[in-house]
Amino acid sequence: MNILIVGTGYVGTTTGLIFCELGHKVTGLDLDLQKIQALQAGKLHFYEPGLEDLLKKHTDAKNINFTNQTENAIKANDVIFICVGTPQGTDGNADLSFVKNVAQSIGQHMNQYKVIVTKSTVPVGTAALVTSVIAENQSTPIPFDVVSNPEFLREGSALQDALHPDRIVIGTTSETAKAIMRELYKDFSCPVVETHPTASEMIKYAANSFLALKISYINELARVCDKLSINVNDVSNGIGLDHRINPHFLKAGMGYGGSCFPKDVNALIYTAQQQGTPLSILEAVVNVNAEQPIYFIEKIKQALGGELKNKTIAVLGLSFKANTDDTRESPSFTLIERLLAEKAIVKTHDPMVKSGVPHQMLTIEETVTGADALVLATDWKEYKKLHWESVKPLMKQPVIFDGRNMLDKDQVQKLGFYYFGISNH
Questions:
Q1: Comparing C-alpha atoms, which of 401, 379, 407, 233 is closest to residue 302?
Q2: 36, 181, 363, 375: least CB-packed within 10 angstroms?
């Protein structure tokens, strides 16, 4: 098939390249000329492990091309995937401005039957909205179908998730569109859920919100464990071995962040409130997540004598998780803001985040030199594998605050560090 991907972020680019792997011809459409030129040259404008190699492979083989010519791209392709951003609006709901703009362009330039697929994370009812906008912008009625096909990609492992999905969700009431989507995904062996577009849209929000719930649950539980001198890692392991619970997303830390969980949880809460059925559990999830970095700051203050003024704090890790350069809603930034509010001197490092960040040093050594304490805020392998014997003499005080419980407590203590984790007794 000839497939158009509208939006060349990590979802759009990954989706397009996977379809190239399956033998389809793909066009990536974006209005940002710089992004288009970089992608056409085989260079990603974001970091995602393994994806740039795949990009170079398929640009060289001419299986994928990139353009900012909207009309030509819409007319030349049979299936159109909408992969644009849906940022959180001021009311807490998803902002569908970009989705509506794409739908408007499709309506204006459509020349024959097409399947339009919403891949972006969108609120319940968006498929119907897209259908309406397309129809309103057609000068001559041309048949089309809109399908909800949410993505379930994790930043840092998007390529693996796209190649080996847990499930594929197809939301449509059209048998024609359903047949085309089945053909598109025929080479995957995972379960395929075929349902109504509204159910498909809800599945995405429900999945992300449930994972966020697990994170906030173990983080709040960690606070109780801290008071009782219980190692929360032991609790996580003990309950995670129950197959009904499983161990995923039960690792205590400084809270969730990124481009998905915060806005998706808020969007689902908004949807529920609009229906007069508040989701009190998810409202608590948001509150716990907002409080978690503050809880960690209090641990730092207590350990450093109750005051952080003029204390030099080295923060290692700025991305919201390892293997991505995405800093959106990163707990690290909440932590840094609170440290600065306490009049601390903050120095930062991240292996991938290199621009637009205050106080950032070029090397780990420069970051930790003279530090009264070091905070591990992102679980990069580079930090776990650090030669900690060399770090200790650089610091003013050998104090580690492990916001990811990623280090071996006994090992670093043997090296002479004072170690504080998240309820890591």
A1: 401
A2: 363
Question: How many Å apart are CA 36 and CA 53, to the nearest integer?
Answer: 17
CA–CA dist 293, 380 (Å, integer): 18
Tell me the CA distances in angstroms from 285 to 66, 210, 217, 226, 240, one per residue in order. Answer: 40, 10, 8, 19, 19
What does the pLDDT look like over 38-87, one tens digit per residue?
999 999 999 999 999 999 999 999 999 999 999 999 999 999 999 999 99
Sign of CA dihedral 74, 195, 267, 251: negative
Predicted TM-score (pTM) above 0.90: yes
The answer to whether residue 20 is catalytic is no
Of 163, 255, 165, 171, give the one whose Cα is nearest residue 211.
Answer: 255
CA distance 380 to 350: 9
Q: Residue 50's closest CA among 87, 14, 5? A: 14
Alpha-carbon distance values, 180 to 17, 83, 94, 153, 273 (Å): 19, 19, 28, 22, 36
Distance CA 149, CA 159 (A): 17
Q: Which of 20, 83, 225, 260 is catalytic?
A: 260
- Residues in the chain, total: 425
